User: Which sequence fits this backbone?
C-alpha cells in the first residue's frame, strides 16, 4: 500500500524508515504491530522501488539543458585542464574543452532539487560561482547526482 501511495505522489526522492517500538513512538499504539522481519522486508521493497524511481528521474534529464543554482565547490578535487581528458582523472570523458588552467568542480541544484556537478574555470569574485544561475547541459547521471557542462552565461 505504501508503494502505491508514494508512486501516486510522483516523488523523485524520499527518506524512509521502519516504525520503532521505542517508548512514545506512534508504533507502540498499534493494536496489532507488524513483526520486525515483515516491517524490514517491506522497507527494503519500498527503498528498492524508490531507488529505481530516482534512477529514472535522473536519466530523464540526460541530454537536457536545465537551470542550475550553483551553491558551493564540490567535494571533488580541482582538475587541471591539461589532465582533464586523461582516463582516471576526476572529470574523465565529461571534461569540457578549455585552454584555461585549473578547473574547479562546483555543485548546485536544479529547480527540482537534484544535485548537478560541473567543472568551471575560477571566477574572479569573492563568492566564486556561489549564487549564480547557470544553464547547464546534462551529460551523464552519477549514482545520486548529475554531471553537466556550462551551456550559457550565468545570471
Assistant:
Amino acid at each position: 500500500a505504501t508503494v502505491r501511495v508514494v508512486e501516486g505522489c510522483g516523488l523523485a526522492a524520499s527518506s524512509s524508515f521502519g516504525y520503532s517500538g521505542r517508548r512514545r513512538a506512534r508504533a507502540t499504539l498499534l493494536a496489532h504491530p507488524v513483526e520486525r522481519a515483515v516491517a524490514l522486508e517491506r522497507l527494503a521493497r519500498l527503498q528498492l522501488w524508490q531507488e529505481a524511481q530516482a534512477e529514472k528521474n535522473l536519466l530523464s534529464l540526460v541530454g537536457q539543458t536545465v537551470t542550475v543554482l550553483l551553491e558551493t565547490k564540490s567535494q571533488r578535487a580541482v582538475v587541471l585542464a591539461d589532465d582533464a581528458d586523461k582516463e582516471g582523472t576526476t572529470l574523465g570523458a565529461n571534461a569540457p574543452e578549455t585552454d584555461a588552467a585549473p578547473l574547479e568542480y562546483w555543485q548546485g541544484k536544479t529547480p527540482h532539487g537534484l544535485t548537478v556537478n560541473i567543472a568551471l574555470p575560477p571566477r574572479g569574485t569573492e563568492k566564486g560561482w556561489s549564487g549564480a544561475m547557470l544553464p547547464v547541459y546534462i551529460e551523464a547521471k552519477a549514482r545520486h547526482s548529475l554531471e553537466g557542462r556550462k551551456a550559457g552565461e550565468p545570471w
Observations:
- Confidence is low (pLDDT under 50) at residues 86-93.
